[in-house]
From TrEMBL:
<keyword id="KW-0732">Signal</keyword>
<dbReference type="InterPro" id="IPR016195">
    <property type="entry name" value="Pol/histidinol_Pase-like"/>
</dbReference>
<protein>
    <recommendedName>
        <fullName>CehA/McbA family metallohydrolase</fullName>
    </recommendedName>
</protein>
<feature type="signal peptide">
    <location>
        <begin position="1"/>
        <end position="23"/>
    </location>
</feature>
């Protein structure tokens, strides 16, 4: 092992709070180690399964790595910060591993993503006595069996074909069906290179798929943009602040575009308004542990929806950047692939094409643990799910049904809400009659609907656990689903954000990372175009 790699691993472990476990006794005599052999099985298949492992002693990480640990280089800014160890000092194995441990009592943590029950075991090691253990991981829910496949839409790991099976094991150990590996960029450079894009960049094993995308452009003034499902990458170094040109080319390549980090950080709400008003944006990364410990932030999402602009809800971990608590908090908040994910309903087998088509249709919900099921049914038996547009006559009636699923011990549901135009119109809690921490449900009938609206479900569970659907877009006789009560205020808010962008165009600026002023003319033209959209919206809302 190179010295730099050794130092990097030791740094990660020290940050995780471990102290080395010595093979010597208090008298200084070397103790005899014992061989420990562990096998992890899937309860359904009865076969060895990839899993995440963490070994501690007296709340300190044991810095002994089995040869079976699956190692892939990763790190911030594409540096070699980590290999086999994860940020919380866990490691991944394909199903079995062995270690030589000094005598003592150890704690063994096993997990396989959100849908499996986590396990904690105690290992008592005696001198010279080998230990052989088999543990079985069991699901509390199987969403793929229901044709809902999970995606981590925001992973940063560089990749060549050689890394495919290794990263695939990481993905499987978190039970993420689709992992989108994003090449990251900024004004100066790109990071986390991928060897190919589109079909050529895909790698699949059964119901698990690696695919590529990009988080680029990224600016402090307009936010971070992402793209998935495109046939190639798009980068315009000399026209970097014109996000819309990248979005247009991504769409030509069959991909989807969106804003990352809930549009909360790096002033992403500005870019979301500038490009969203002009119909350039498909999605918003609605759930992620990059802002704070609460992963669900809806302010900017509801802003756009209430203006009648549809946005598909996506989510992603932003591994290895976000959620770094070094293993001291709940697993959901650890910097971990799949700690924030979105589920997509796919009719038929999981392939790159069926996945991309389903995401484009908006059949999604985001989650850091809970599971949601939202549907609307009309009196003439039409049924709609998240992402669908449901056009009604004024005499039509609908019934909206929502279910939330959790696990009383691991994902204890607390509240389920039906949201329309940003307001809660139906709510149940786990303490209500007929409800529980494992299952919440509500049914809301609507009489004759006179105006369009968007309908979405959201729920909350334990610390850091939340979920939210893409809306069902209900329209009446071909009209809009905007909110007439909040739209005028949101139009004014859009204008405020556009003025913020204009303030960034004064320059030159001494901060080298602020480059928007160099694109003043082009951005002013785009702001003017967005203002024309706002003028049309004002007229529309004044004369519905």
């Amino acid at each position: 092992m190179h010295r730099s790699r050794q130092l990097t691993i030791w740094l990660f472990l020290i940050l995780s709070g471990f102290r080395p476990v010595s093979a010597q006794s208090t008298t200084g005599r070397t103790q005899k180690t014992s061989r420990v052999e562990i096998q992890i099985l899937d309860a359904t298949t009865k076969r060895p399964t990839p899993a995440r492992i963490r070994i501690t002693q007296h709340n300190r990480v044991v810095p002994l790595l089995p040869t079976e640990a699956v190692a892939v280089m990763y790190g911030l800014w594409d540096h070699e910060d980590g290999y086999a160890y994860q940020p919380d000092s866990s490691f991944y194995v394909a199903g079995t591993f062995s270690l030589d441990l000094p005598p003592g009592t150890y704690q063994l943590a096993l997990s396989r993503g959100n849908e499996y029950l986590r396990q904690q075991h105690e290992l008592v090691i005696k001198p010279g006595n080998p230990v052989r253990k088999t543990y079985t991981l069991q699901r509390w829910i199987n969403m793929a069996a229901r044709h809902w496949y999970s995606t981590d839409g925001h992973i940063h790991i560089r990749r060549s074909p050689r890394e495919n099976p290794l990263i695939m094991t990481w993905l499987q150990a978190e039970d993420v069906n689709v992992g989108a590996l994003l090449r990251m960029g900024d004004f100066w450079e790109t990071y986390y290179p991928q060897y190919a894009y589109g079909e050529k960049g895909n790698y699949q094993q059964g119901n698990y798929l690696l695919t590529t995308g990009q988080e680029d452009p990224r600016t402090p003034e307009l936010g971070h943009a992402f793209a998935i499902g495109a046939g190639n990458r798009v980068r315009q170094r000399d026209r970097y602040y014109f996000f819309d040109e990248v979005f247009d080319k991504i769409h030509q390549l069959g991909g989807l575009t969106g804003y990352a980090h809930q549009a909360e950080t790096f002033h992403g709400y500005r870019g979301l308004v500038l490009d969203g008003l002009r119909g350039k944006v498909d999605a918003l990364e609605l759930l992620q542990f990059c802002v704070d410990e609460q992963p669900l932030h809806t302010e900017h999402y509801y802003h756009m929806l209430d203006l009648g602009i549809p946005l598909t809800a996506t989510a992603g971990s932003d591994f290895p950047w976000c959620g770094q608590d070094h293993g001291h908090g709940p697993p959901e908040r650890t910097s971990r692939i799949g700690n924030a994910r979105f589920y997509t309903l796919i009719n038929g087998p999981l392939t790159y094409q069926t996945w991309r088509k389903a995401v484009q249709a908006g059949h999604t919900f985001v989650s850091s643990g809970p599971i949601l099921d939202l549907s609307a049914t009309t009196t003439d038996h039409r049924r709609a799910i998240p992402g669908d547009r449901l056009d009604l006559k004024r005499t039509d009636k609908i019934t909206v049904t929502v279910h939330a699923y959790g696990h009383a011990g691991q994902v204890p549901l607390s509240a389920l809400e039906l949201v329309s135009h940003g307001s809660v119109i139906g709510r149940v809690t786990s303490s209500d009659t007929g409800q529980s921490a494992a299952h919440l449900s509500l049914e809301v009938p609507f009489g004759a609907i006179q105006r369009g609206q968007w309908l979405a479900a959201r729920c909350y569970a334990g610390p850091g656990q939340a979920a939210h659907t893409t809306p069902i877009y209900v329209t009446v006789e071909g009209g809009s689903f905007h909110n007439p009560e909040t739209a005028p205020r949101y139009v004014d808010l859009c204008e405020k954000y556009l003025k913020e962008i204009e303030q960034e165009l004064t320059g030159p600026r001494p901060e080298t990372e602020l480059q928007a002023w160099k694109y003043r003319d082009g951005l002013q033209a785009r702001i003017a175009e967005a203002r024309r959209v706002l003028d049309d919206l004002r007229k529309k809302f004044k004369n519905p």
